[in-house]
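Translate sequence into structure tokens.
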Amino acid sequence: MIQDASAYRDITIKLPKYAAEMISAREIIALLTDKSLNKAEYYRSKCQELEQKYGRDFVDFKKKVEESGEEIFSEWDDLMVWEGYHLGYKEWVKKYKELKACII
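Result follows.
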């Protein structure tokens, strides 16, 4: 949960009258929360594909590649891609938690 009030910002959106009558601010936040969870799940699934390919998690794979005396370019390529997925997953989980805190 975010403690810093400056991390939040009030916004106003214009919607057609019928749409504004159909949806509440809480529902809009819930939609954004669902979207962030979907993004996190996408990145998690990509990480899982690489975990299956190499039989280890990201941290172990990174350590193996970086400490290896032999440069295997395909592993370095996968490491860079995996790191992007790993960071993307962490970022979207953070966003999900922040949005979820707004629903309460």
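Note: The chain has a mean pLDDT of 92.
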